[in-house]
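tokens incoming
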């Protein structure tokens, strides 16, 4: 009987099965696009579509001039519970640290104001941190908070503290739920150098808006992620 599943999906599932079975181990280079073309009797474009899907999910990553590799940092995240990045990584057994790249108060542009239910031109705090797991730079996190809601925020040390913990401890505010969007984006300049040690690279981008139980947005965060090293496996209970 003819397999009605699209070939690119068959390739995607074949790779995933081999990863789950340990045939393709973390950090291992998988066969080339040409090899998959021969195995599945298909075009390079079809193989590349399967590769691109797995890259977007952070399961695979490419190294220029070398090949395609299985990503190494794999995190399971329960969609029914809310944890910050630091707690999530530590629960998975990784050592974490952060470099504070910027903390400042600036006027919100139209996009930020809309995300935080503010007026354009109102003041927001911007906190940018470079996050490490086992001393490897994994993501750059850019958080935005309504300055009116969080007096004296600039006086807090952010290098090693969780933002969620700070909101709870210093302002008695609890994250009730988070709306999340994941996409990809080309990076260049400092961010590309800090995450990929390259002048230009494609990053996973995760946008989070965290709300309290009154549907008030408490923070809007953009995380630029090195998808070559970090992937999230979500599950719902």
């Amino acid at each position: 009987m003819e397999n009605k599943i699209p070939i690119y999906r068959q390739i995607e599932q074949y790779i995933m099965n081999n990863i789950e079975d340990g045939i393709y181990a973390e950090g291992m280079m998988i066969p080339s696009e040409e090899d998959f073309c021969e195995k599945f009797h298909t075009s390079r474009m079809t193989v590349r579509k399967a590769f691109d899907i797995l890259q977007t999910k952070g399961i695979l990553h490419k190294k220029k001039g070398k090949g395609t590799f299985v990503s190494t940092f794999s995190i399971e995240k329960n969609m029914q519970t809310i944890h910050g990045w630091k707690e999530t990584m530590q629960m998975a057994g990784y050592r974490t640290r952060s470099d504070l790249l910027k903390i400042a108060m600036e006027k919100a542009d139209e996009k930020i104001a809309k995300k935080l239910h503010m007026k354009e031109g109102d003041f927001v705090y911007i906190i940018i941190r470079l996050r490490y797991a086992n001393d490897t730079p994994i993501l750059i996190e850019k958080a935005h908070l309504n300055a009116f809601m969080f007096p004296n925020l600039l006086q807090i040390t952010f290098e090693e503290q969780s933002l969620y913990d700070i909101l709870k401890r210093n302002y008695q505010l609890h994250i009730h739920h988070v709306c999340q969007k994941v996409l990809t984006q080309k990076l260049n300049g400092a961010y590309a150098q800090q995450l990929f040690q390259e002048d230009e690279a494609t990053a996973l981008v995760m946008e989070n808006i965290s709300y309290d139980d009154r549907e008030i947005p408490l923070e809007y965060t953009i995380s630029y992620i090195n998808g070559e090293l970090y992937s999230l496996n979500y599950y719902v209970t």
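note: The longest strand covers residues 96-107.
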